Amino acid sequence: MNAVFANHNVKVNRQGIDHLKNWTLLEHFDYCDIEYIEIKKGYLLKNRMFVCILGIIIMIFALYFLIRLFSDIEFFSIRPNTKGFWALASAPIFIFIFGLALFLKTIIKENVMHIILQDKSQHTILLPYNKKHLKEIIEILRSNNVKVLDKIILHTANNAVQITP
Q: Which architecture characterizes domain 5-43+109-162 according to CATH?
């Protein structure tokens, strides 16, 4: 089946929308089953606050361990100019970077498509960041008589303009 639009997260064709993960089909949504689609900036994580708090706790732990490491050098009985000390010091730095990545993932908004089906179930799919591809997806969906609520605002040099193809 030829896809009208496809990337590694979504494929839009004549039969409906395919939710993909690494080009593997997770779910298929027929156009007749879709009540409406909402395209907007949103979060992909369902338990955002849990992941955010976990990231903050990991960063605090890493900072505490790093401060403790440099304040109590005698505690570890390793001199700061040896390889063992820097190997020991690099662990909390990598742990801090991991916690920071978790925290940043919870606050960054991405282009998402919320699909609301006739039975009121909701599904979220990550969309491409390219504005040209977003317009193409919206045109394809509207040509298949799908109600599209578009809440993505494109910022131009003069003012903010809402996409309405």
A: Roll (2.30)
User: CA 95, CA 14: separation in Å to the nearest integer?
Assistant: 46
What pLDDT is stored for residue 103 in this prediction?
Answer: 94
Do 68 and 150 touch, CB atoms closer than 8 A?
A: no
**Amino acid letter for position 61:** F
- Alpha-carbon distance of 95 to 91, in angstroms, equals 6
What mean pLDDT comes out for the span 141-153? 79
**CA–CA separation, 15 vs 34, rounded Å?**
12
Spatial separation of the C-alpha atoms in residues 80 and 17, rounded to whole Å? 58
CA–CA distance, 118 with 91 (Å, rounded to integer): 50
Neighbours of 47 (CB within 10 A): 10
* pLDDT tens-digit series, residues 29-67: 888 888 888 888 888 777 899 999 999 999 999 999 888
Q: Cβ distance 21 to 9 under 8 Å?
A: yes
Q: How far apart are CA 50 and CA 100, in angstroms?
A: 14
Orientation angle between helical segments 83-107 and 48-71, nearest 10 degrees: 160
